[in-house]
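Handout, page 2. Input:
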Amino acid sequence: MVVNYKVFKKVSPNGKLTVYLGKRDFVDHISCVEPIDGVILLDSDYLTGRKVFGQVICSFRYGREEDEVMGLKFQKDLYLCSSQIYPQPEKQDLNLTKLQERLLKKLGPNAFPFTFNIPQNAPASVTIQPGVQDQGEPCGIHYFIKTFVGESEIDRSHRRSTISLAIRKVQFAPSKTGRQPCTVVRKDFMLSPGELELEVVLDKQVYHHGEKVAVNICIRNNSNKTVKKIKTMVQQGVDVMLFQNGQYRSTIASIETEEGCPIQPGSTLQKIMYLTPELGTNKDRRGIALDGQLKKQDTNLASSTLLASSDQKDAFGIVVSYTAKVKLYLGALGGEVSAELPFLLMHPKVRYSTVLCRIA
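Output:
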C-alpha cells in the first residue's frame, strides 16, 4: 500500500537552508510528547566553517502588541530544547523515522536529520481570539522551530539565514472516560416549607468538537415557589496562570425556555436540552480560547486542558475548561437556583497506520 503524505517545507530568505517536516501537530499523551523529527537541507559552499543550530521555542503572548510602549513587552519566549544540527556531533545516535530515511535518500549528502523532544509539562497551543479592531499577534501560546546559522546556540541569528516554522502541541480525548457527570442541588427558602430540587445529568463526560451536549434536567418542586423560566448554557473557562486574577468565563452556547413553565408547587418536570458549543456562533467574540492556529488553516474552540496533576497548573500558561450550567428563575422575590457540571471538549484520537511514504 502506497500513500502520499504531505511534507512541509520552508526555505530561508537567502535560499541556503531548507527545513522539511512530516507534520506540524505533535500530540501530548500526558506521559510523553511526540518527538519533532525532520530534515534540514544545507548549501555546502555557504556553510564552510559555519555551524547550524536548531531550537524549539514556546512563545507566550499575554498582552496586545499595540500596547507595548517604552520597551515594555507582553511576551515571554521559553527555549524548550536546543541542539547543533551541523556539523553533527560524533557521538549522536539518532533513530531515524521512515520519513527521515526517505528524505535523506532523496535529498542527498547535504541533508541532515534532527530530532527535538518537548518536555512533558509544556503547555498546549492556545490562541485567544482577538477583537475585530485588534492588531498584531494574538495573545496565547505558540510554538515554532527555529533553525539558524551561528557560532553558538546563544548567538544572535541573522534574518536571512534563519527559518522559523510554526508548529502546534495538541491533546486528544482520552480513550478511557470517567463517570457520567451528575449533580443534585437542593435549595430551601427562609420562612417557607419544603425545598426545590434540581438534578442535572450529562449523557457522557467527553464530547468531540461539533457534537451536541445533551443536558438532562429533572426539577422536583416541593417548595411553595414557582419556577418561571429555565436557562441552559455551556461556558468556557480560561485561566491565565501568569496573573493572580486571570480567570474568566464566557458563555459560548445557551438556550432559554419557558416550555413546561411555570412549575407550580408540588409539580415535577423532566426535560432534555441540547447545546452545540462551536466557533461558528462565537467568531466575533473577543477573549474566546481557540486551538492554536497555523496560517491558512481553520481552527475551532480550544480543547480542554488535560493535566496529569493539578500541581502542574502553573507550568501550563493557559488552562481551558468547560462546564454545562442550568439556571432556574423563580421571579423577583424567589431568586435563582443553578447547577454546574464540568465536561471535556476535545478532538478524537487520531489513529496512525504504518505505511510506505512516497515523497513527491
